[in-house]
Amino acid sequence: MLWNERTVYREEPFETEADFEEAILKVAPALFGDARLYLDVERLIGARGRTRDIPDGYLIDLASIRDPKLFVVENELGKHEPLRHVAVQILEFSLWFESSPHSVKGIVRDALAQRPDFLLRGQEYARRNGFENVDLLLERMIHGSNRFNAFVVIDELDEEHHRNWTPS
Length: 168
Description:
Order of helices and strands: EEHEEEHHHHEH
Radius of gyration: 17 Å
Number of helices: 6
Strand content: 15-25%
C-alpha cells in the first residue's frame, strides 16, 4: 500500500496479461521515459515450421545521441513463472532477431507509420544526430553492435524471483 496525506493507494493485482498491457499503455511515458517510444505492436515472429512467438511490443530508446537502441518488450504477470517462461521467450526473440533483421525493421517501421507522433520524433532525432532518415536510424539499431536488447516488464515478483532478477 502507498499513501500520502490525501490519498491511499491499495495494490490490486492484474487478473489478465491484457489488463496489465492496457495499464502499461496508459503510463508508458512515465514508465519508460520521455526519450523512449513504446510501440504496442503484437505480430507473430519466427519462421514457419519452427518456434513462433509474439513479442508484446518494441521500445525505441533515443536517450543517447551516440547509441540509439531498440528493445523487444515482453510484459508478464509475476504469477506466470516469469523466470522460466520469459527466459525461453527472450532466447527465441534473440534468435529471430539475429536471423531476420529485415523482418524486425519492417515490423518497427510499420508500427512507426501507425504513430505519426512517434515517427516525427524519430525523424527529428535522426536529423539532429547525423542520420539521413529514420530508415537509416533503424538500420543502425538493428544491425549495430548492440543490436539485440530485451526489456521485460513484470507486475510483481515474489522474493525468490526478486533475487534472480536483481543484479548483484
